[in-house]
Write a structure and sequence with these properties.
RNA-binding; alpha+beta; BirA Bifunctional Protein, domain 2; 571 residues; YbaK protein; five-stranded mixed sheet; 3 domains; 16 helices; globular; Rossmann fold
Length: 571
RNA sequence: CGGGGUGUAGCGCAGCCUGGUAGCGCACUUGCUUUGGGAGCAAGUUGUCGGGGGUUCGAAUCCCUCCACCCCGACCA
């Protein structure tokens, strides 16, 4: 491709809407333009990258035996009502009506449609297993779209759905997809980790996420420093302290803490470590108020809370409920002196093992110190893991300690089971003649998100640095003074021709611009390899090769330049 | 949805407080010079000042209202 025939929409300055590096760079490099909140057009340079990602995903899905289909992005409400998700999905789903006032949605995902296809088309166990996938535009009306294509409302997703006759088969299909995903992200040249995950709204038993590692990621990943354990922090288990609870050694004492309503404040006021304090959080579930107790330096894991018996569908208690159940206001709450008929005490595993702790006195402007389970208040009604793990916690698999890194979720595989097949009556005739619901799995990859995540992971102050497999062009040929030197022009054209002839995606920047402009654009757009041709080098018979990550250029004899680059690409 | 902020040329911004009919840089067009890291000079082009309403002789500027976009939050008691 010649620059003169391409549309290079680079910008010197980033539009003010962009905050994150990848978002700014995608706009500046001319990959995308914003149409509205969470809506992006993809320009020619962006499309080239997107197609590369799609191609690798397709190849690996095909190789794993999945079959490509396309389902309509506009789907009738009836299907979603069958599974109850028409209501469940809530405002995330964009709902539309046709001229006859029939309700539709713009697909946020396609379990219902694919299950409908399965129940109509798949009749016998002999047809199983089968795995359908599509690469399609999805729409999710996110509460707050942000970070450009990383959390857009409209985005491209590869979604696959497997159908098996039994659970063992389904788990094998799941495994095949898991392995395919690993190959995809490896081939894309990204640093990633697969982690155990919460299955969330989609439901099902097993679930793994694929996270591209990047400091700006929205997700936190906990991994063991001594094993291959890795999990999303939403899911990572915080083990109970191994040491038994120490005996009470301090007397219970109530002291004023005027205006100090946080653990941090009390710890500072009393010059005590934050880890000695306990914070109380009141939740209401099933019309009963619960006091959740977390160590002062820990944070609540809302997903774990929802899994505690009796806390499914919990919400934060109102101020009125708090006062009525605990007797004191928020900020001064604790387990001592509660009427347990009115309130259930749920202690985090760590808190249950604490002694001589600091907590609220259930009275405005007072806290307690030297509080002890058993002596000062009854033992907790429930002890559960409800906090987020922190770095240094023991790994749940018993090997090593946990460390935390940030990641961007680009893939997610779910072992669904029969949730959708049962809800929609999708059955097949089994070997014994009985009708059985399909065992399903579903597998997503955020195609557009991968592009943003790759940039987030691979950029510097000058611009993008594409991994070779995703680069819009493999190599930039940059002639310095093409419009004034016949020798430069001839050498650049020859080199470009050699590369193109060898099937290398070369970009010849034949614009009549100063060298700085050409070089800056190549660096901004992130073309990973470049060959500079200038009069200076021609005198020596060389081209200057430089990888986007190289600090210095390497002189390469002109005649060998094309082969030199091809060797780098192969490696 | 709550809080904060921003909307002025394609992009980045000033002007607004203290009303007087719109400006800077980049980009774009033309010409000349220049050409190994985002050129210089000269001459141009580009605006319903987010929309609507109001106050006023007069509104980008003051008031009301709506809209769009961005950031933080929507747990931490």
């Amino acid at each position: 491709m010649r620059a003169s025939q391409f549309f290079l929409a680079t910008l010197k300055e980033a539009p003010q809407e962009a905050e994150l590096a990848s978002h700014k760079l995608m706009l500046r490099a001319g990959l995308i333009r914003k149409l509205g909140s969470g809506l992006y057009s993809w320009l020619p340079a962006g499309i080239r990258v997107l197609r590369k990602v799609e191609r690798i995903v397709r190849e690996e899905m095909d190789r794993a035996g999945a079959l490509e289909v396309i389902m309509p992005p506009v789907q009738p409400a009836e299907l979603w009502q069958e599974t109850g998700r028409w209501e469940l999905y809530g405002p995330m789903m964009l709902r539309i009506k046709d001229r006859a006032e029939r309700e539709f949605c713009y697909a946020p995902t396609a379990e219902e449609v694919i299950t409908d296809i399965a129940r109509k088309e798949l009749r016998s166990y002999r047809q199983l297993p089968v795995n359908f996938y599509q690469i399609q535009t999805k729409f999710r009306d996110e509460i707050r779209p942000r970070f450009g294509v990383l959390r857009a409302r409209e985005f491209s997703m590869k979604d696959a759905y497997s159908f098996d006759a039994d659970e063992a088969g389904m788990l094998a299909s799941y495994r095949r997809m898991f392995d395919a995903y690993g190959r995809i992200f490896t081939r894309l040249g990204l640093k990633f980790r697969s982690v155990a995950a919460d299955s969330g709204e989609i439901g099902g038993s097993a679930s793994n996420e694929f996270q591209v590692l990047a400091d700006s990621g929205e997700d936190q990943i906990a991994y063991s420093d001594a094993s291959d354990y890795a999990a999303n922090i939403e899911q990572a288990e915080a083990l109970a302290p191994s040491a038994p609870r120490a005996a009470a050694s301090a007397p219970l004492k109530k002291d004023p803490t005027p205006g100090v309503s946080t653990c941090e404040g009390v710890a500072k006021l009393w010059n005590e470590p934050l880890a000695r304090t306990v914070k109380a959080i009141l939740l209401t579930a099933n019309d009963r108020v619960h006091m959740l107790l977390i160590r002062g330096d820990h944070s609540v894991n809302e997903i774990k809370v929802g899994k505690v018996p009796g806390l499914k569908g919990w919400r934060w208690s109102t101020d009125g409920e708090i006062l009525a159940a605990a007797g004191g206001p928020a900020g001064y709450l604790g387990p001592v002196g509660l009427d347990r008929a009115k309130i259930t005490v749920v202690a985090d595993r760590t808190v249950a093992a604490m002694s001589d702790f600091i907590c609220g006195a259930n009275e405005k402007d007072f806290h307690l110190r030297g509080a002890n389970w058993g002596r000062d208040c009854p033992e907790p009604d429930l002890v559960a893991d409800v906090r987020n793990v922190v770095a240094g916690d023991p790994s749940p698999d018993g090997k090593g300690r946990l460390a935390l890194v940030r990641g961007i979720e680009v893939g997610h595989v779910f072992a669904l089971g029969r949730r959708y097949s049962e809800a929609m009556g999708a059955t097949f005739t089994a070997e014994d003649g009985a009708q059985r619901p399909f065992e399903m799995g579903c597998y997503g990859i955020g195609i557009t998100r991968i592009v943003g995540a790759a940039i987030e992971q691979n950029h510097d102050e000058r611009g993008i640095i594409w991994p070779d497999p995703m680069a819009p062009f493999a190599v930039a040929v940059i002639p310095l003074g093409l419009h004034k030197s016949e020798a430069v022009k001839a050498a650049a054209e020859k080199l470009y021709g050699e590369l193109a002839g060898a099937g290398v995606e070369a970009f010849l920047d034949d614009r009549n611009e100063r060298p700085g402009v050409l070089l800056a654009d190549q660096e901004l757009v992130g073309i990973p390899h470049r060959l500079v041709i200038g009069e200076r080098g021609l005198k020596e018979g060389i081209a200057e090769y430089q990888h986007r990550r190289d600090a210095q250029a390497t002189k390469v004899p002109l005649a060998e330049a094309a082969a030199f680059v091809r060797a780098r690409l192969a490696g």
